[in-house]
Design a protein that fits this description.
alpha+beta, two-stranded antiparallel sheet, 8 strands, 6 helices
Amino acid sequence: MIKRNRSYRPAIACAIGILSFGCGDEPDGEQGPEGDGTLTVQAFCEERARIECQEFYVPCCEDLAGASLEATQCERQRFEDCEFGQTDAELSGWVFHPAAAEQCLEALPDVYDECQVRGRDSPEGVAKAESCNNVWRGTIEPGGQCNFLDLDCALVPDKHVDCVIDECVALDYAQPNGRCSSESPCPPSQFCNNTETGTCEPLKEVGTPCLGDGECSSHRCGSDDTCELLEQAVCERLVGG
């Protein structure tokens, strides 16, 4: 039986608010080969912090968390979150993927619409999730031994990759609105309603009752069992820090 899809990405998703988030040949993550133009971890973290703070956190956190946020404070904290994510990823044996990082930076601005966030039920949200969640990724191929998390496993094109009973597996997606199961997961813009219909259904909007993160377009089911913005929790931490 496949373990429940997890929103937790060690410290990466929690700290970066992605999974996010979520060096290739460069274990220290500081720079790529000289002169090749490869995006470095530091450059990625700096630019991601700038985009997030400029497009969302600075103009929106006052409404979401009841206190204003300075740009310098926001960018410093989000950069530190990203660096902390890098450290945690390296400890997990994951590597930095510059191509996914570049795609993540390109996708981020399209997710923010004033103080609204386009979730995983939108093309923009899917693009962001598919890139930002794979900035750091494991290298274990299907059939190899993993340590509980799907991010331990290497990506396989057009497949859902998961860690099942400590083994990486690559699964075919179910058809949109079709029957789904642990062996036939729903496409990224839907969730499997295995408690009622056993079919793939549209992800739930913010404010809708939920049973878990995977049901929500925001990928966060709050303590009151309703879908809420992950960014709101990040705002509360940022203004409190």
